[in-house]
Amino acid sequence: MPRIVVDVMPKPEILDPQGKAIVGALPRLGFTSFSSVRQGKRFELTVDGEVTEEILAQARDAAETLLSNPVIEDVVNVEVVEA
User: Fold this and answer.
1) Residue 65 sits in which domain range?
2) Please, what is the average pLDDT of the chain?
3) How many domains are there within the chain?
4) Does residue 25 surpass a pLDDT of 80?
């Protein structure tokens, strides 16, 4: 069954305390090449049958109105992933 993947990230101007905690822990674990981290969310919507333009539009609408908080988050990706 195909899936629609939605990625949501905090807006650039919004503080990301989880990202700060991760970037602080990376050097202690030996990962020294990274200077910043932003943590986001990933949603996978399984579709019964074919993904039509209408279903993809519904996924984009759900991403903007339900899966993200538009005040502090951006929907950065909505894509179809075949099973």
Assistant:
1) 3-81
2) 96
3) 1
4) yes
Alpha carbon dihedral 15, 73, 6, 66, in 10-degree steps, equals 130
Considering only CA atoms, which of 8, 38, 10 is closest in space to residue 22?
38
The pTM assigned to this predicted structure is 0.87
Q: Token digits for 54?
A: 């209408």
What is the reported pLDDT for 83? 64
φ and ψ at residue 10, rounded to 5 degrees: -65, 145
From 73, 51, 78, select the one nearest 62 (Cα to Cα). Answer: 78
| Span 44-63, pLDDT tens digits | 999 999 999 999 999 999 99
**Cα-only R_g, the chain:** 16
- Give the strands of the sheet with 41-46, arranged side by side: 41-46, 3-10, 73-81
